[in-house]
Design goal:
CATH superfamily: Aldolase class I
Helix content: 25-40%
Radius of gyration: 16 Å
CATH topology: TIM Barrel
Structural class: alpha/beta
Number of helices: 10
Largest sheet: 8 strands, parallel, barrel
Number of domains: 1
Number of strands: 12
Length: 251
């Protein structure tokens, strides 16, 4: 049985880690380099860095900050935000990213998925999907959740896989920051539909929420932010809790 992964997420705005609820009401959560080091020491499996304002501000991800964080950690490191070309992806790889995450740019230009995958391999590419339920359908949103698109999550995730994405990072906008649990029904459908790993994001509040994401949602990994940033759940304790519930994790 493959071990399930616990991923810490750093949402970055103006060089600081921030966290909100339902993608709004952002508040400061600390220095990203210090948080990254702390998570690495605590035994988190992977780190995700999302420059959440890069797309809206029409600029590239802060490569210098990526390089600084990468120099302080020794775990897989995914970077996203403002990546719209193969050159952008290459720059972040050179700065120390192990994987890159694309979202709005892939919605605007789906061939970007093909191009990055062909240049670097599918294992390098995470397709991030932010979605919320509208009229009983999971509708994909872009630009940090600000713009509703005409895409639906399941067909878009399938297209992403076919174009060469190596993983799907699904964030439920309805669950984000609520600490009421993940969108397990949608996660299960995604995992039944796809052959590539699916990362659950949005809604973690209790250790048991991770159990549900892995058992009910069939997620391959689960990502959280504020509960780790503010010390509400300690990563070693979470992993022990998961092991006690017969879920394979790395220690």
């Amino acid at each position: 049985m493959l071990a399930k992964r616990i991923i810490a997420c750093l949402d970055i705005k103006d060089g600081r880690t921030v966290k909100g609820t339902n993608f709004i009401e952002l508040k400061d959560a600390g220095d990203p380099v210090e948080l990254a080091q702390a998570y690495c020491q605590q035994g988190v499996d992977e780190l995700v860095f999302l420059d959440i304002s890069a797309t809206n501000e029409k600029r590239k991800t802060f490569a210098s900050l990526v390089k600084k964080i990468a120099s302080h950690i020794d775990i897989p490191f995914t970077v996203g935000g403002g990546i719209s070309s193969v050159d952008d992806a290459s720059s972040l790889l050179e700065a120390g990213a192990d994987k890159i995450s694309i979202n709005s740019s892939a919605i605007k230009n789906p061939e970007l998925i093909d191009n990055i995958s062909k240049n670097f391999g599918s294992q390098f590419l995470v397709l991030a999907i932010d979605a919320k339920k509208i009229d009983n359908q999971w509708v994909v949103h872009s630009h940090g959740g600000a713009v509703q698109t005409n895409k639906k999550i399941f067909s878009w995730a399938k297209e992403g896989q076919e174009r060469g994405a190596g993983e799907i990072l699904f964030t439920s906008m309805d669950h984000d920051g609520t600490k009421n649990g993940f969108a397990n029904d949608a996660l299960q459908k995604l995992n039944d539909l796809l052959q590539i790993p699916v990362i659950a994001s949005g809604g973690a509040g209790l250790p048991f929420h991770f159990v549900e994401a892995f058992k009910l949602g069939k997620a391959d990994a689960a990502l959280a932010a504020s509960i780790f940033h503010f010390g509400e759940i300690k990563i070693p304790e979470l992993k022990q809790f998961l092991r006690d519930h017969h879920i394979a994790v790395r220690f």
